Amino acid sequence: MMKFEEKTIKRTEIFKGHIFDVVVDDVALPRGGEAKRELIFHKGAVCVLAVTPEDKLILVKQYRKAIEQTSYEIPAGKLEVGENADPKAAALRELEEETGYTAELELLYDFYTAIGFCNEKIKLYKATNLVKVENPRPMDEDETLELYQVSFDEAQDLVKSGDICDAKTLLALQYWALERQKR
Known about the structure:
Blueprint: E1 7-16, E2 20-28, E3 34-42, E4 45-50, E5 57-64, E6 69-73, E7 76-78, H1 87-99, E8 101-112, E9 121-132, E10 145-150, H2 152-161, H3 167-181
Parallel strand pairs: 4-9
Antiparallel strand pairs: 1-2, 2-3, 4-7, 5-6, 5-10, 8-9
Helix pairs in contact: 2-3
């Protein structure tokens, strides 16, 4: 049986932040030899596929500094300190802060965003029975968002144009497409 595991020989912490930590591991390779692995350890995140009773997908448009452009995305956010024990509550918080809605949530998937160098795991929830909140929680102070409700075809056009370009939203759209085929 082939061995795959790389054993960590030494870990060097490069950066410790609020959202993620960066390390460099020296590893022993399964077939002999050594290598370096630059890794990001992320505290986790949540996202929400929210479709209105009118069959419109709720998206937020925001600027993403890492790619130096705006993106249309499903509501999402990182897990705050202490929220690992209740990610569903974090998803409800993000949904309310970013869209002004609350809902019943069902976990669809846990997925990793970039397993070659990062352990960020996102939990994707499906929102049902959306209700507009009378006095929603305020948006994060460092966020500038614009809210959109788009049809399935409009969402596909946003993918084609590159305006939807993040993995979490593409995965959510794939689920929505499969769900629509069942109707």
